[in-house]
Write a structure and sequence with these properties.
- 30% of the residues lie in helices and 23% in strands.
- With 363 residues, the chain is an alpha/beta fold.
- The strands form three sheets. Strands 1, 2, 3, 4, 5, 6, 8, 9 and 10 form a nine-stranded mixed sheet that branches. A six-stranded mixed sheet has the order 7-14-13-16-17-11, with no helix packed on it. It has a two-stranded antiparallel ribbon with strand order 12-15.
- Strand 2, helix 2 and strand 3 form a beta-alpha-beta unit.
- The longest helix is centred in the middle third of the chain and has 20 residues.
């Protein structure tokens, strides 16, 4: 395989080493480049001692950010396919090969990602990545303030998510997560960096997906390729996300555009909770009899239940998902229990929440 795996380290050598071993276990002999952004001699020495000799290490001139770290790594290889792997990602057997084979067989695809799970048991599915647009920003701002708009968005998003979570074939996507993404080098213009250097962290992968799509190229998730991504909702990174979001929207959707103006106007109104969320019962929940063979639990940090992780289940009783709640850290968690084989119906669904400290389910 003409593939190079790229990883960026920032003071997390142990995590990076485990991710590297995951890549090597899945694709022995693959080319790997690790860029160290730590700007710390001790961390660099630790990295040197822990990584296999076959792994190329590149010491960045400081903490240059994730995107620039990936750009630096890409300059170290001529591989036809660049496989971006986050430190908290673990590849499952056959992942690299399935992504590589899909790109070889489908020249219209510029990039592909594996199906990703949150947990080691591969029970909790991560959601599809979303592609921010000015129109979508307006839709979401309305949904946060108008229950009917929230329900229309929920029906559309849930339907799309179900197709994404249940398909066994490669499925086209509007965007992919840079946490686990294989990119075709030739999809980039000559001299074009993989990531726009204006993004320090976050939105650099969204920017890439938008650039590729605007050239008429396509993206897909490959269910035959699987990976575990131990995502965490980290509120302390909100400032960096907001800064990157501004770069992205200023670049693709000028602030004076019609939909951005409408979005800002709607955002001035108070937020209202679209569903009747109740605290999850201490003793668990009894599943309606006609859902026993196909219920679906979705959890999200947003009261819109979008984006959401998903658990497909069977049985008559649901206990609190204490194994995954810590991934949301200090944020409130909103849940929807429904029948996976039926259309979304707020009258039948059950809505729960695990409020953050000092808040309630209806705030």
């Amino acid at each position: 395989m003409n593939v190079c795996a790229v990883l960026v380290n920032y003071r997390g050598t142990g995590e990076i080493a485990r991710a590297v071993m995951s890549v090597l276990a899945d694709a022995p002999g693959i080319d790997i480049v690790v860029v160290d952004n730590s700007d710390d001699p001790q961390e660099w020495a630790h990295l040197e001692s822990m990584l296999p000799l076959s792994v190329r290490r590149v010491r960045a001139p400081g903490n240059i950010g994730f995107g620039q770290g990936c750009n630096l790594a890409m300059g170290q290889t001529q591989a036809s396919f660049i496989f971006l792997v986050n430190p908290d990602v673990r590849l499952l057997p056959g992942c690299t090969q399935a992504l590589h084979d899909t790109l070889l067989a489908s020249p219209e695809l510029a990039a592909v990602s594996p199906r990703q799970f949150l947990d080691n048991g591969c029970q909790w599915l991560l959601p599809p990545s979303w592609l921010p647009t000015a129109l979508r920003s307006w839709v979401e701002e309305r949904a946060l303030r108008q229950p009917q708009a929230a329900r229309r968005l929920a029906r559309a998003a849930r339907s799309e998510n179900l197709r994404f979570w249940t398909t066994s074939q490669p499925i086209r996507q509007r965007a992919l997560s840079g946490g686990a993404m294989m990119v075709r080098r030739s999809a980039l213009m000559p001299g074009e960096p993989l990531f726009d250097p204006r993004y320090f962290m976050y939105f650099e992968d969204t920017d890439l997906c938008m650039r590729l799509r605007r050239r008429g190229l396509h993206l897909a998730v490959v269910p035959a390729a699987r990976a575990i991504h131990a995502w965490r909702n980290q509120p302390h990174k909100a400032t960096m996300m907001a800064a990157s979001a501004k770069v992205y929207f200023d670049k693709f959707f000028p602030s004076d555009s019609t939909w951005m103006t409408k979005s800002r106007t709607v955002a001035e109104g108070p937020i209202s909770t679209p569903y009747d969320f109740t605290p999850f019962p201490a003793g668990g929940v009894q599943i309606p009899a006609h859902w026993h063979s196909n219920w679906l639990l979705e959890l999200s940090p947003s009261p819109l239940i979008q984006p959401a992780i998903a658990l497909f289940g069977r049985g008559s009783h649901l206990t609190a998902p204490y194994d995954v709640l810590p991934h949301f850290e200090s944020a409130s968690v909103f849940g929807r229990l429904s029948c996976s084989s039926s259309p979304d119906d707020p009258r039948l669904n059950k809505y729960f929440c695990w409020p953050s400290v000092g808040t309630s389910c209806v705030e």
